[in-house]
Amino acid sequence: MSSAGQHSATDAVDPRRHVPRTDAVLAEPRVAAATARLGRELVRAAVGAVQERVRRGEVPAEHEAVVAAVLAALPAVPAALRPVLNATGVLLHTNLGRAPLSDAARAAVGLAAGTCDVELDLATGARGPRGATTVDALLAAVPGAAAAHVVNNGAAALALVAAALAGGREVVVSRGELVEIGDGFRIPELLAAAGARLHEVGTTNRTSRADYAAAIGQETALILKVHPSNFVVSGFTRSVGVRELAGLGVPVVADIGSGLLAPHRLLPDEPDAAGTLAEGADVVTASGDKLLGGPQAGLLLGAPGTGAELVHAMRRHPLARALRVDKLTLAALEATLRGPVPPVRAALDADPRTLRARAERLAAALAEHGVDAAAVGSDAAVGGGGAPGVTLPSAAVSLPRHYAAALRAGDPAVLGRIERGRCLLDLRALGPAADADLASAVLACTS
Ligand SMILES: *Cc1c(COP(=O)(O)O)cnc(C)c1O
Where is this region: Disordered (predicted)? Predict the structure, then answer.
């Protein structure tokens, strides 16, 4: 009895002991709605964390305050991914998921997320060809392609080339094109793992047509051209174009990497799918989430004749099933191809003067709130394994360095770039609609 009395005495001086009960907080309608959206475990964990903060005296021991703290701590979706505004000036930032999808592609993903006719002919009620409309969109977008197939990513496209077209046989490839794609993954090892034997020709800096010609024999399955998409070799160099290789009597597969479908004036050294097919490549492989601006995907495009037959052979290979893309990818890719200009393309085509005007407006608005902000010129880049060495003129808002960490911790997070001791928010990779969000994010760090 006396202990109960002691308790109430303590409670009277220490209201933190009145921690609202879990059941009561979970029963609150707004919290119950969050449970319906996010699942019980996540919300329960958030309630537990807030109760702990109440015990530490960080949150008032009142029902309403606890509910507010729980709601504030909950994520928008039950997944740990957080949205990040890409203010790095790197258009395709691999750590940020490369290309952001267009609104059209996002809407298509939402639609495909339910049950949909991905493999059904609604007119007859019979099974239909999976992803046929996406393939049609690809063929419409790439003049000169007679067949197309979509797999999980660029690496998967190469694996399928190796397994289906060169299993147990030789792939002739220049030593100047034995590329590491990133994160320790190397194209020659990928080809070997998929069952092809590599026949390397030439040297790091120089390979001639005669080198290829001498390597071709009974064992040759194909010649592979790999675009050096993340490095530049300069000086005493020589490489052989697809046009010269096309006459050597074996199929030529060209990995163009970036997924540019047609030439772009700012990227004169970046090969495009239509141009590479026109030069005589039988098959072109590329990524979907680089300069094409779509979802992660690997594209296989075949020229009329041999190329189309090779793509058909790859589509029927057992591994094709293992590399098959889901309906979300098919939907996003088709919407990217048929829909309005995707964000990556808009960023590439952005007028530097417009970027400068945006930076000035933003800096002025921030300065009005006492932020040490200035508009500055900036050099942006394609990044993500595309157009190495190409500088895209851009504009940025320059802030004191300490903003960098604070902005990363914000919601949405903002990732800038540190340059000469300042935190730069480069506008090239962001559409104008992001400016208001950038301003709020910076001001949130200031308050
Ligand atoms: C990016 C790239 C790849 C790998 O493509 P993923 O879609 O990342 O798998 C392969 N080859 C080249 C030339 C590339 O640029």
Answer: 1-22
